[in-house]
Specification:
alpha+beta, disordered C terminus
Length: 194
Amino acid sequence: MTPPLDEMLALAGAGTAGYADAEPFPHAVVDGFFDAGLLGAVAAELPDRRASGWTTWDTSNEWKHVFDRPEFFGPHARQLADELDGSEFVRYLERLTGIDALVPDPHLTAAGYFDVRRGGFLNVHVDFARNPKLALVRRVNVLVYLTKAGATSGAATSSCGARSTAARSAPSPPPSTAWSSSRPPAPPTATPSR
């Protein structure tokens, strides 16, 4: 699902300066990182919203639904989660961000499938700096967009909520975003109405 390690490390090396210099905080948006067909399979496995395991987050920073029960993921979603937690992807993130010794969260604390419906939002924010389960400082967040090709996505190149977010047609395959969790972002200019 992820590119070969040498390609990931080359991509990370080429993106390091852009990541570090990005405003208003370090971040990167990478189009086409994951195979679109496999991401489509992950999206097709999205658990029904009536299934047990969904949590609704309704705060000033987010209005979304989260499914964080990896034991109930389908085979493609489990493969993606395993690859994101794997050594090769973590090495890519370390090279991209310049942060050594990153430790992935296999428990998906405050992570998993996010279902953000029309009117929903996810502002970039720091709601907890320490992972309560692992007792480690949270350093990097990664979003993988599963928006179907041709649909409208709330992602933009700023994609992190500190700037206004403009809708665009989702590329095929959808973008992936990584940003630093250790430097708090600027507050959003406005909270979207629901």
